[in-house]
Design goal:
By secondary structure, this protein is an alpha/beta fold. The chain has two domains: about 35 residues; about 280 residues. The chain is about 35% helix and about 15% strand. The chain is built from twelve helices and 14 strands. The strands form three sheets. Strands 1-2-3-4-7-8-10-12-13-14 form a ten-stranded mixed sheet. A two-stranded antiparallel ribbon has the order 5-6. Strands 9-11 form a two-stranded parallel ribbon. Helix 2 packs antiparallel against helix 3 and helix 5 packs parallel to helix 6. The longest helix has 20 residues. It is globular.
Length: about 325
Amino acid sequence: MATILDLPLEILVEILSYLRLNLQGLMELASVCHRFRSAVFCCPIPVRLPLSEQQLVLMRCYKIPVNNLCNVQPSMYVSDQLSRLNLQRLTEAQLVANDYLSKSKKTVLSPQYWTLLKYLYPCYILKVLMLNVDLSKTIACDRQAVFKSAEFCGQFINLTFLSLHFTPQIELNERLEGTESSQKFIQEKFINTILKKLPKLKKLYLHACPIQHLVIKSNTLEKLCIYRSEFLDIKEIHAPKLKTLMFHEGLRQFFKHFEAKKMSNSNTRPEYDVFEVIYDGCPKLHIFNSVPVGNLHHFYRGKKEWCLAALSLCLKSYQKLFNSGADALQIQLG
């Protein structure tokens, strides 16, 4: 009578992969029999650094493939471990460790962090990438200045999810010392470069983004999230497939920025113009800061009417959530 052990090894590996084992579970299953051992050592597993020496020996000895990698420790403590892992089947990497040079006031990534990133070079099937970035430049083959972080991310053409973590110090420096030409350079050589080089990108997260007038143009992007970006304004979005937009960490921060710009008599573009940007370039948007705005197109055909209705809907949702709080804002529609 045939049993599971009679299955071809490739089929057995496929079945065991559905168990989503970690290293401990894998070793326990490997102790069942020789056939299971041969199969489970071919199953990719998630790894969170740092590993113990015993775990590292097992990973290296049996060349166990890693499919999900997570590290939040300083690179100098884990880069040696990463060099000994089998990353050929890596599909997801979370490497947000805030590993910046202290003497740069957290504006320049450390050499150890770049060493850590270089171990991802063979992982061209990578689909999810979360990492720290900076505005360091290098010279490309055509002798043009480029951003190292943007060029690095652009290598992984199969990415569908990308989360870029700048620091508040980088954002503030660009606000205080940046020029119009530097802003255009970041837009063109960082954001635009990434969007052009990643043809499968569906989700983009920006943290403390140093651009003050952001332009997004993508035919594949379905979700855009902008967090902790105090000075950022959305100037233009052309994303026909965009379904979700998160701006300023949700409604509370959105309306705080709304009120702050209203109180300051500056000539900068006000936050509520984001609805005009959405109307012009995001015809399929369903969710703005967790508020469902997709159905408004059925009732408000005109641009002005739709924008006012969207702002009103967000305001009502905000008041419903925070009306009882002490910090609820009293915002009047203009």
